[in-house]
Amino acid sequence: MLESIQNSTKYIKSRIGDFEPEVGIILGTGLGGLVNEIEVEKQLMYSNIPDFPISTLEFHSGKLIFGTLAGKKVVAMQGRLHYYEGYSMQQITLPVRVMKLLGIKTLFVSNASGSLNPAFKKGDLMVIEDHINLQPMNPLTGRNDSDMGPRFPDMSEPYKRVLINKALKIAAANNINCHKGVYVAVTGPNLETKAEYRYLRIIGGDAVGMSTVPEVIVANHMGLPVFAISVLTDEGFPEELKPVSLEEILATATEAEPKLTQILKELIAGL
């Protein structure tokens, strides 16, 4: 993958000139509204970048956005990649490695997920303080390139505690329902059964989703501090589980997105 990473980075640098982002942002399902807050300088379609994976989901636009947000130079992925789309874990996480080579110092990740904790309701936000990885492959599998990171990266603090604490203070100051909890990553694309929701809660999960963890593993591998936050778009409570549609998930994410944007903007401004 090293050649692919270098090819993508070289092309992007040729298009953005001397622009050097200090913050990387990955926007999750239904959460692209943050782009409206960016003073955009350049946009690149994934499909035009050599060796860059293309999002196959119709509700992910597939653009790299370069500009200024809260006084900081940022690069935002408007449309993320998932293992269930058929990509390898190395392909899914290639954009994180490219953003690191472009110069970012901190990675911010958002996602839409289902609540496992009865105290966390649909439409609330959850800052991720830790995760459980139930996806079948690891993006670090295979030969390790020591220039990218160590063979056995430490994961004792995968999400930066100082950013977690700041985010919770920002949420409280703005009267935003925001929790902190453990995110469980599964493969998808199907949603979970009652028995699976029950199991995920038993093992310590507060929310479940199909993304985020591969990117976080690679960011930690490369020494990038990470902040991640979920919009809880549905409730996986076995006792009262109801069918949920993609349209409902997207509508909930869209409604909650301004609250997420508020937290991210203030966090980035304070870097």
Automatic annotation (TrEMBL):
<comment type="pathway">
    <text>Purine metabolism; purine nucleoside salvage.</text>
</comment>
<dbReference type="GO" id="GO:0004731">
    <property type="term" value="F:purine-nucleoside phosphorylase activity"/>
</dbReference>
<protein>
    <recommendedName>
        <fullName>Purine nucleoside phosphorylase</fullName>
        <ecNumber>2.4.2.1</ecNumber>
    </recommendedName>
</protein>
<keyword id="KW-0808">Transferase</keyword>
<dbReference type="GO" id="GO:0005737">
    <property type="term" value="C:cytoplasm"/>
</dbReference>
<keyword id="KW-0328">Glycosyltransferase</keyword>
<comment type="function">
    <text>The purine nucleoside phosphorylases catalyze the phosphorolytic breakdown of the N-glycosidic bond in the beta-(deoxy)ribonucleoside molecules, with the formation of the corresponding free purine bases and pentose-1-phosphate.</text>
</comment>
<dbReference type="InterPro" id="IPR035994">
    <property type="entry name" value="Nucleoside_phosphorylase_sf"/>
</dbReference>
<comment type="subunit">
    <text>Homotrimer.</text>
</comment>
<dbReference type="Pfam" id="PF01048">
    <property type="entry name" value="PNP_UDP_1"/>
</dbReference>
<dbReference type="InterPro" id="IPR000845">
    <property type="entry name" value="Nucleoside_phosphorylase_d"/>
</dbReference>
<dbReference type="InterPro" id="IPR018099">
    <property type="entry name" value="Purine_phosphorylase-2_CS"/>
</dbReference>
<keyword id="KW-0597">Phosphoprotein</keyword>
<comment type="similarity">
    <text>Belongs to the PNP/MTAP phosphorylase family.</text>
</comment>
<dbReference type="InterPro" id="IPR011268">
    <property type="entry name" value="Purine_phosphorylase"/>
</dbReference>
<dbReference type="GO" id="GO:0009116">
    <property type="term" value="P:nucleoside metabolic process"/>
</dbReference>
<dbReference type="InterPro" id="IPR011270">
    <property type="entry name" value="Pur_Nuc_Pase_Ino/Guo-sp"/>
</dbReference>
<feature type="domain" description="Nucleoside phosphorylase">
    <location>
        <begin position="23"/>
        <end position="269"/>
    </location>
</feature>
